[in-house]
Amino acid sequence: MKSKINSLADYRQAPFEREVVISCPEEYMEKQLRRLTRGGKKTESVSVLQKGDVAVLTLESKLPKFNRPMVPVTVGGGLYDAELEAQLIGHAVGETFPASVQGESVTVTVKQANRTVFPEPTDAMAAAYAEGKEELNGITTVADYRKYVADSYCKDESEQVIFHTMEEIIAYVLTNSDWEFDPEELAALEAEIRQEIKEETDTEPDALTKGQMLGILGVGTREEMEQFIREEAERQIASQLWLAAAHGIDPETAVGEELYELQWDFLEMYVRDNLKIEIGG
Amino acid sequence: MATQHATDETYEALVSEGVVLADFYGQTCVPCKMLAATLEELEDEFPFINIVKVDVDQCPVTAEQFHINGIPDLYFYKDGKVLLHEVGAVDGEEIRSLLAEILY
User: Fold this and answer.
1) What is the ipTM of this complex?
2) What is the pTM of this model?
3) Which residues of B are marked as active site?
4) Which CATH number among 3.40.30.10, 2.60.120.260, 3.40.1160.10, 3.90.226.10 corresponds to the domain B4-103?
């Protein structure tokens, strides 16, 4: 590589949250418990709407999306419109009431409402669900299953916290170091990134619509896309230079593959040694 | 409507009305099991969406007709028309976002 590091920030100086408490949210636990009880679920008619109920609504408004008859909506499900769904809670079947969406008034009539009800999980259900599943071997009670769910959740979350902390540290070092990017290397990498965008979208990057740019790159204009491509190329080169330095490899003589095979193990070890993760109740 | 299991004979009828997610899967495919769990949760939350399971080994004619080369393969239907399909274990958030577009 012809690009160089002029000065490298010390990753050990990067600020990050040193103590994190993780606990399994009750909502997540409830969803996992449904795996045991799903076979016995029932649908009941209800008179007053709560979060999670399915309502059939007739809507009148200037907004076309909210001017329709018999629209099925899960209250709080977020598929239709979170703002409107929040205003449904507490209203009764047969009631017509004014709501507001995006500053426009919407007249809502609740035509029907149903609730899915799950039975209480039993030890027999837990044992039956666990049967034949290697990862659930030994689970015979609901308490065992709850513990398995909570432990798995906390383990996965811990890994996520470590991963995000590593990302924060990498971002700190890339921002606070001084890099000398070789124009040819940058141009070559930018061309590769453009090619990747083209392969993903089947469209030349310069011909992407605003929606495609927002969906794929998270930017809304061509100028922002150019900046994104440039920054991504710089980030990739800087990462490789730092990795090479951390592993004692001379990037001047290293070949591409060799550089790309380098890992962030040293950083992961540093994070694991310096981040206290407490598992909550 | 609860999740329904298609055969080559029933497939067309099962996807002909409403919003339907047709899940082409295999019994031993691990990503298929992940997607199946996601679809079960979606069905709990949005029971007005119909889910049709298509075991590619049990429905060879349908799998051939749809050129299923990778599983899981999820087809999104509205009133009998395929609007889009996604190969791989698509996550719940992505499916919700696609459903929001199709439903409303």
Assistant:
1) 0.90
2) 0.75
3) 29, 32
4) 3.40.30.10
